[in-house]
Each structure stands twice: as structure tokens, then as C-alpha cells.
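Worked problem 6 (solution included).
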Amino acid sequence: MYMLYDSPSYIVVQFDVPVAPTAGDTAHAARSEVTPPSLQRDGFEIVDKVSRKEIFIEGALAQTFQEGVEALIEQGPDVEDLDAFISQYANLGHQPVVMH
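Solution. The predicted structure is:
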């Protein structure tokens, strides 16, 4: 877990989500006598501090988010630019933030 961004409006945390190998992956590894690479897939948790909602994205949506952030960073954005981009994804969140 890595905190990537923290502004007055949003927090973005990156998670490494392990992907369990399938039976086909295991069978292929046994036939080839090669250890299969460990599978990882990034996921991002986006917390909207104002609305107190969060969303966890992974897969293709997470990849699109990451590429968008990287493109934005190349432009030298300010906090408002980053918050505007993040809000597009945060608005998808419906899960209330619960402290425990």
C-alpha cells in the first residue's frame, strides 16, 4: 500500500492486488518446469474527503486512471488540475468512508 496523493479534497492510495494463478497456469508451469511469474495487478483507492465516499478501482479502469495521472504529471499540474482529474473517478464512488 502506497499513499500517492493527499490534498484537502482527495486521498489516492495504490494497492498491489495479487492475482491467484488459474489451474491452467499451474498445469503449464508443471509441463514446462518453469516457475510461473507472480501475478500482480495494481488497484487504487480514491477517497473523497468532502463527500466522505470512496471507490476502489482495478483492472482496465485502474490502468486508464494511472495513464491519465502520468500524462497529467508530465504537464506539471497544480493541485486543482489533479483534483479535477481525480474527481472524475471519485464521483463513481458510493461506498461511505467508515472508521474502525
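Discussion: The longest strand covers residues 10-18.
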